[in-house]
C-alpha cells in the first residue's frame, strides 16, 4: 500500500536571516506540533508569486505582522499581495500539522483526528467584483490534493465548511453550521469564538461555539477519503488573491486572525516511529524489515492493518467482543496476503493488542 503525500512547494525551509524575524518570543499557545508557512519570501517581501517561506522550528520565532507571537496569543496575517506556495493562487499565514520532531505528520480517517481552537477574526481582505465574497479559511483537514474540510469565515460573519469530495458523486459541497433551534451563527469581526473539527472513518463533525451557543455541521465521509493521508492546518488562508493573477477572487487588503488557543492534534491511532513520512512529495516507503533482514512489506501496509483493526472496533462497537476480534483478523487478511510469516505476526500483534485474550 503506497500513499501519495502532498507537500507545499515553497522557496525555502527555515531560512536563517529573513528580515524582521525575531527569535526570542514566547507564548502560551502550543506550537510544538506545527510548522508555519508565511506570505513572504526569503527577503521578507510580499512578492505575490509562489516563493513563500516556511519555518519548522517555531520555538521563540515571530515574524510580525505576518506571524506575531505574544504571551497569550498568536496573530496570523496574509495580505492579498503576499507570497504564495507553488500550488495555490492565494496567500497564507498558516500552520501545518507535524509530529513534534520536525517531520510532517499524516493520518487516515480511521485513526480519528481532532483539532480545537479559540480565536477571533480581526480583518478580512476586500474582494473586488460583482458577487465576489471576502473570506478566509481558519482551519483545514487537508488531503493529497483536495481538502476534506475547509472551515471558512466570510464577510457576513458566517462560518461554514466545504468538503471537496462529498457524497456519492464525490463533488464539492458546502455544509452550514446550525444550532439546535435551526439558526446559523453570525460572528462579528473581533468577537471571540471557538471551533472543533473531528473526523473518523464514518463522518466529519465541525462545531463552532459563539456566545454560549453551539453550531454544528456533519458530513458523512464519501468513499474517496478512507485511504487518503490527511493532516490539519490552522491560521489564515486568504481566499482573496492579487489582481492580475489566476486567483478566482481578487482584491486588496489582508486577512488576519488572532488565536488564543490551538490544541495539539490528537488521534486514537498514532503512527509508530519509522512509518510513512512525507519527503518532498515522493512516495515515502519506510520499509519493515523481516527477521531474515529482507525488506518485503512497507510500513504503510502494516499501518493499513492497524487502521482496519480500529475500523473493525468501530463497526462492532455494539457486538460481542470475541466477534469483533474474529472480524478484525478476517479484515486484515487482505493486507496480509503478501506478508512473510514475520510480517503477519506484526499485524497479528496489533490485533491482539486491541483485543486482549483477557477480554474474551
From TrEMBL:
Transmembrane segments: none annotated. It comes from the Bacteria. Gene3D superfamilies: 2.60.120.200. Keywords: Lyase. GO terms for molecular function: lyase activity. The keyword Ribosomal protein does not apply. Residues 29-262 form the Alginate lyase domain. The keyword Lyase applies. This is Alginate lyase. The lineage of its organism: Bacteria, Pseudomonadati, Pseudomonadota, Alphaproteobacteria, Hyphomicrobiales.
